[in-house]
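ok posting inputs for the nicotinamide-adenine-dinucleotide job
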Amino acid sequence: MRLTGRTAVVTGAASGIGRAIAIRLAAEGASVVVSDIRTDPIWDGLNTEPTTDVIVSAGGTAIFHKADVSVTDDVHSLIQRVVQEYGRLDIMINNAGLVGSHNILETTEGEWDRLMSVNLRGQFLCCKAAITQMVTQEPVVEIRGRVINVSSQQGFIGPPDYFAYAVSKGGVVQMTRQLSTDYARHGILVNGLAPGRIITGTHPGEIDMTDPVLTYSRARTPYPRLGRADDVAGAALFLSSDDCTFISGHTLPVDGGWLAY
Ligand SMILES: NC(=O)c1ccc[n+]([C@@H]2O[C@H](COP(=O)([O-])OP(=O)(O)OC[C@H]3O[C@@H](n4cnc5c(N)ncnc54)[C@H](O)[C@@H]3O)[C@@H](O)[C@H]2O)c1
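and the output
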């Protein structure tokens, strides 16, 4: 129970990585606001229960708050809700994101705008609202708050045909560095996660193990399997916990070694 008494918001927490993070933080004692534009998971194997139901039936504390991270009013009401319900915001997990895979010539302005609005503007709005709250709080064990931004391994490399997505995720890596520099002196730690290929509902065909993207990803990942949402949740727990002190501005790959070569 490493997070007893702490409060957390997880965006994009209905499905996939965000869902696993919300469940893990709650299992460690955090009170969690599960936020998303939908309640039911896009895909989670056989378990189709909403994330809050999974948490509450396991004895944890969670509420659902509907918010589109690209909409300013939604993000403000999300942060107001966590303060209203739980008194403060200790951990902000900015996870909501969309994927897209085209080269620049195939990328329409609509696709560019859609990805930037969720992956980059959404992270900007959520970081801004979370930090606005965190700077007003008293520190707990030196820390006023922790922000964790979910980027991607593709934010560090130029993967073929992931133009807008990789640009947006590279922006998230830089946002994390910049905010860490600006807010470390306020006792706010800002770190990131860069998942490798994780099996979730994000990519069409991802559940189909004959999918060429999956076949390539398995061959490209040194560890002999693809990632699981729980792999990322474990790393999120570390960055959220008191074990993570004096670490800020870094984006931790959770990629089975993909970025090592
Ligand atoms: N799965 C992977 O292989 C992988 C790899 C690297 C990075 N990531 C990143 O991890 C994060 C989660 O990915 P995932 O695979 O779990 O995806 P997912 O599609 O399984 O889940 C994403 C969730 O975000 C929600 N969402 C989408 N747009 C939203 C919005 N505007 N506001 C609020 N919520 C919104 C969706 O409803 C969904 O529940 C994303 O940022 C993604 O880019 C995933």
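notes: Residues 132 and 144 are 11 Å apart (CA to CA). The first strand starts at residue 7 and ends at 11.
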